[in-house]
TrEMBL record:
InterPro entries: MOB_kinase_act_fam (IPR005301), MOB_kinase_act_sf (IPR036703). Keywords: Metal-binding, Zinc. It comes from the Eukaryota. It holds the Pfam family Mob1_phocein. The keyword Metal-binding applies. Coiled coil: none annotated. This is Mob1/phocein family protein. Zn(2+) binds at C18, C23.
Length: 75
């Protein structure tokens, strides 16, 4: 959870510089492109802008972190 919160804060500091226009794809340099697939809205690997990809990723992680079936908070 702490790692997620730190990454979320770091992303918040660069999100203004990385727009849909300036970052049209989510990539790791010129050799790697990340495609989004969640099995629900995006059934096939889909190219997204970096900001859209990051929003979906952070939402996906947050849903799992808060899922009591995955990470129970009570015993």
């Amino acid at each position: 959870v702490d790692f997620f919160n730190r990454i979320n804060l770091m992303y918040g500091t660069i999100s203004d510089a990385c727009t849909k226009e300036s970052c049209p794809t989510m990539s790791g340099g010129s050799k790697y492109e990340y495609l989004w697939q969640d099995g629900a809205e995006y059934k096939k690997p889909t190219r997204l802008s970096a900001p859209d990809y990051m929003v979906l990723l952070m939402d996906w992680i947050e849903l799992r972190i808060n899922d009591e079936a995955i990470f129970p908070t009570s015993t």
